[in-house]
Amino acid sequence: MFPSNKSLSSFKTPNSGFVAPSPIEINSSRYFMACTVGGTLACGLTHWLVTPLDLVKTRMQVDKTMYTGIFNGWGTIARTGGMTALYTGGIPTLIGYSMQGAAKYGFYDYFKYKYASIVGEDFTNRNRTALYLASSASAEFIADILLCPMEAIKVKEQTSLTRFAPSFLGGLSKVYAADGISGFYRGIVPLWLRQIPYTMVKFATFETTVNLLYKHVMTRPKSSYSKTEQLGVTFSAGYIAGIFCAIVSHPADVLVSKLNNAPKVEGQSTGALASKIVKELGFSGLWTGLGPRIVMIGTLTALQWFIYDTYKVYVGLPASGSVEPAKTLSKAE
């Protein structure tokens, strides 16, 4: 579960013949950098890939009568703006979630190591889920500060039925000219409310599911399975985690979309505006677009874990998750 700080030797991955270029010491600066790079690739690429789903979901959250469903939304958008219109908001999505992924995955492993070092091995092995939750919440708090400006631009682009700005840089200038720096962080609190529970569920459910799969389905020691088989476990656990993530974080996701789309009212605080939106939407309104989001987040989360673990295996690190007890959490053995 929490590997020791020994260097991993270069090795051949089963069925690939690939030899890792050099060993990476677990919980070293190179290890955390590898996690950061893997997170960048995992989140940026996958969020960009599902932009068409996100576009329909976001517009339905702002106006639930706009489309009757995912395919109706895609067809309407493609007919009026061409196929490229399906990737409206794609640039801020790619940039924002690449930065968010770097911080989320890099800091998750860093905080997991640091917190485990503070509380000790015995406490950690008895309370692993608590460690996953604390580490992922801390990592996501930082990651959302990087994501929020790009999320604001993305929502404005996606909810504008006419072109929001002539270019991505033009969109940045337009938001800054209207509201200054605060315009980029208008949705930071709802974003934290959406992303922190999402990430806590994402990491804790994933790690728990991996453990259960190795305990009850693939009952041999994890190390006896090929890297391809381990990555199959990663993808399966990632999709299961994604379904739970979508449900837990959906009301806050609706609120983020509505906040970033709402016109500015002089003297009105973000909190007052959020309360007004929640009251107008009601309980059922906060769940608008859940179906498309479950498909989007389930696919997203599975692909993210798969890409992340594939990169880790590529550089010579083990796939995420384990049922093996920690031998040590200290810096030196």
TrEMBL record:
Alphabetical UniProt keywords: Membrane, Mitochondrion, Mitochondrion inner membrane, Repeat, Transmembrane, Transmembrane helix, Transport
Domain of life from the UniProt record: Eukaryota
Annotated Gene Ontology cellular component terms: mitochondrial inner membrane
BP term (GO), one: copper ion transmembrane transport
InterPro entries, per database record: MCP_dom_sf, MCP_transmembrane, SLC25A3/Pic2/Mir1-like
GO MF, any single term: phosphate transmembrane transporter activity
Subcellular location: Mitochondrion inner membrane
Solcar repeat feature ranges: 30-114, 127-212, 229-314
Membrane topology term: Multi-pass membrane protein
Keyword RNA-binding: no
Protein family per UniProt: Belongs to the mitochondrial carrier (TC 2.A.29) family.
PANTHER family registered for this protein in UniProt: SOLUTE CARRIER FAMILY 25 (MITOCHONDRIAL CARRIER PHOSPHATE CARRIER), MEMBER 3, LIKE-RELATED-RELATED (PTHR45671), SOLUTE CARRIER FAMILY 25 MEMBER 3 (PTHR45671:SF10)
Biological role: Transport of phosphate groups from the cytosol to the mitochondrial matrix.
Name the UniProt record assigns to this protein: Phosphate carrier protein, mitochondrial
